[in-house]
Amino acid sequence: MVVGDISTGTEVLVIGAGPGGYVAAIRAAQKGLDVTLVEKDAYGGACLNRGCIPSKALITASGLAHEAGTAEEMGIHADPAVDLARMIEWKEGVVDRLTGGVEKLCKANGVNLIEGAASFVDDQTVRVAHGGDGQGSESIEFEHAIVATGSRPVEIPGFSFADEHVWNSAAALSAESVPDRLVVGGGGYIGMELATVYAKLGADVTVVEMLEDVLDPYEDDVKRVVRKRAEDLGIEFSFGEGATGWSEASDGGYLVHTETEAGEESTYPADRVLVAVGREPVTDGLDLERAGIETDDRGFIETDDRTRSAVEHVHAVGDVAGEPMLAHAASKEGIVAAETIAGEPAALDQRAIPAAVFTDPEIGTVGMTETDAEEAGFDVAVGEMPFNASGRALTTGHTDGFVRIVADADEGFVLGAQIVGPEASELIAEVGLAIEMGATLEDVAATVHTHPTLSEAVMEAAENAQGQAIHTLNR
Amino acid sequence: MTVKEFRLPDVGEGVAEGELVSWLVAPGDRVEEDQPVAEVETDKALVEVPSSYDGVVEELFVEEGEVVPVGDVIISFRVGGADGASADAESGDTKPTDAEPDDSEPTSVEAESGSPSRRTFAPPSVRRLARELGVDLSAVDGSGPGGRVDERDVREHADAEGSDPDEDDATDPKPVEMDTGDRKSAVSKRGSAEGAGATTAAEPGSGPEPAGRDRTLSTPATRKLANDLGVDLDDVPTDETREGEAFVAEEHVRAYAEASARPDDEAAPPAGEGGSGVETEPTPADPATDAPGETIPYRGVRRTIGERMEQSKFTAPHVTHHDTAEVDALVAARERLKPRAAEVGVKLTYLPFVMKAVLAGLREYPILNSELREEAEEIVLKDEYHFGVAVATDAGLMVPVIEDVDEKGLFELAAEVSDLASRARDRSLAPEELRGSTFTLTNFGAIGGEYATPIINYPETAVLGLGAVEKRPVVRERSGDGTGHEVVPASTLPLSLSIDHRVVDGAVAAEFANVVMDHLEEPLLLLNE
What we know:
The complex is a heterodimer. In chain A, the strands form five sheets. In chain A, strands 1, 2, 3, 4, 5, 6 and 17 form a seven-stranded mixed β-sheet that branches. Chain A has three domains: 6-153 and 280-348, FAD/NAD(P)-binding domain (3-Layer(bba) Sandwich), CATH 3.50.50.60; 166-277, FAD/NAD(P)-binding domain (3-Layer(bba) Sandwich), CATH 3.50.50; 354-465, Enolase-like, domain 1. Chain A is of the alpha/beta class. In chain A, a hairpin with a 5-residue loop joins strand 21 (402-408) and strand 22. Chain A has helices spanning 21-30, 45-50, 52-69, 84-108, 169-172, 189-200, 220-232, 327-341, 370-375, 391-396, 424-437, 441-446, 456-465, and strands at residues 5-15, 35-39, 112-115, 117-122, 125-129, 137-147, 151-153, 166-167, 181-185, 204-209, 236-239, 241-248, 254-260, 265-270, 272-275, 279-281, 314-316, 355-357, 362-367, 380-386, 402-408, 414-421. Chain B contains 14 helices and 21 strands. In chain B, strands 11, 14, 17, 18, 19, 20 and 21 form a seven-stranded mixed β-sheet that branches. Chain B has a four-stranded antiparallel β-sheet with strand order 1-8-6-3. Chain B: Its cofactor is (R)-lipoate. Chain B: Residues 81-297 are annotated as: Disordered. Chain B: One of its GO terms (molecular function) is acyltransferase activity. Chain B: Pfam families: 2-oxoacid_dh, Biotin_lipoyl, E3_binding. Chain B: Residues 121-158 form the Peripheral subunit-binding (PSBD) domain.
């Protein structure tokens, strides 16, 4: 236990041990720098503890349960009983294993780990307040700092995450039981993923969304596939409405109040309400202004293509540095930050950052859509392959969706892809590689793909864009 | 209807770049295949560049006087269907999306094309290499399919830039500037409070014209700096763009702030003593380029000569042998032949005689008609006698080649020398007339002088310099009694023979020179040649 204030120095101070921070710390240590990583909560950050990993665990488990119970067509008759508490326990085990791994990796690479909340004293010093019973704090002088404090779910007026029946995504991933009725405020990717989980676990789910469709940035035909499947799962949608508050209902449950832009009000009975309307950067308590750093009007730290903030020796990576708020983007930024500090010519020069949504079916996207490419002035060639023409998709019982590949018509360079369908999150990686390597449709189409696999659909889409597909009619 | 880009072709042996001397067409002109579109001065010749397309000139990417590397796009044509409207719209309002086109940087593929599909395609490893070498990828010509840039392209571009550093001023991201110094400067920037002074000084009229844009892109660090210096980013002049928007870098902000803070005296030309000076006299040197003396661009023929000389003198250890031939007989022979030559329209100089004398020497000492191939570790003795003849021209030294000296008569050689020399001065020699020599002669004596130390026309092994044929005092045995010596006037030809000492030693050079002198002193011997 440290009481009082002690002072140490480090070459690189990393604040936050999520997928941006721990990756930056390890890479900086690999470059021979003296690295101190400060984490106030849990190694692995939101991604490992409250986001990507736990949600994928529950998505897989709930999907398995649901699939086992709905496979009569394949001759399987089952009525799985779900023990949610056990499922959550299993999920926690997965999380613990991963977060423990992060801690071990950091130590093995020589990263000095400190638990506590960091705040800037000036542009060369932070004070770290140790939580728990060690009331002490220490000052750490740094030559370079990497702010990787991440983001948290946004609260909306009328709903407080302090209330037991009001969930944020973290609470939804640690629930003790499946609510009978779940209202989800927000039809974005987090809302849709969790709505699917609970629908598959047997809840009556209603998604309330301000906009006129789910999954806002995606293209209509991509959204349609996911929405239709969600409707088949029994999820109900109310578009054009925003949740404004709640009240207690006579049946012991709650009523979620919504309002349209025109002022029309509705109520939805619920036992739990999940608020998933977005995430906001975490910078409070950091005292960034003492280091001379300002945040923009959404609270993000502005950075350049080498992750440097306005104070050049202070970098920011991950969600706190703005969109895209994706773990793999954070990790890339962390690597660039560490290598830049190490004096290497690293830069955020990627052509595209892939994104995946783990709905049913999944969505995987990378690079430009057809519209993006047209707006950028390309003469666009587009090819598609529906999964209902894929042998492997048929054998999985999941044939919704398609692969669409977008390319430059003149030279054939692959510019982007949108995949909605089984394993879209995995399939998208191939197109990501194609984009980064400057591969052409020809390159993708001429690469032999294993049969029978879903990945053949990517090859077929490339062939389709060239007007040479075998298994679909060329458009 | 498509837009075709046309790159500067390789117009001659080993030519890496050329100066675009003049455009022969303008945008909107209709051109046919093989019609000349531009005049380009390359290594040693002025050549016309023919079009490869039938079509309409869309855009010229290079200004007259600019030096263009071979392979760079210089012009684009609209070819095929004549739907001009869509082409205009396309090139008019769409900009490359992800390049950083610097409009003043015409070697940038992105900036040139006006076609958005020209975004640079390069794998991540190559992009990293480009950053390491400080190469602007958008300025690299990709050799892969569709212009995909690979590692070799980047390295070659970097090498090319190394020899021509002024070509790249917009590289981004910059080469790494790092570490504590960097950090300190970032810190002190925040503290520096000269801002107030700069703000007031930036009033219109006293400094550079504010650009007054609506939107300006820059990094957060630059924005911060601008703020500290009291500079409105939208006012900072820049010719860099990102995603089609003006982009301001730190150095622009500093330059603008400094210029704004400076009092009027720099902007105004230095005032003359009297009142008359300023209006009537041309403005003296632009303050920005106000260096002592005059600046002459080092490029084109001048630079080629320089590079060749450098290569020769730094590669081949030169040794120069001097001797003097007594040429009274040669002078007499030439006098007798001159009218005969004139009858067939040939001006007979001493050079053809010297060429024949050299030929005699080379036949006896073929090692001087050779080339050392360092990599192959071999010396190649040439079985041809192609003589380069150095000609002074307004643009600089040129060395046209007289082929097969052993097969030509004196008059024929004289006619050919005179033709090549005059065409060298007109700059109308074809590149092939400037290559292939095995031995070179330089007749500096035509202007005056006795001895020199000529530089070998690398990779040849020897060069012979000729001084002026003049009467000079020579010592001879006194005629008649054979008892003493006397100094008498005689026509002499001073010879300066430089050899590559790697290939041949001084003794051989001297023996060769003796053979040459022998033939010059007794011109009848030339009948053998």
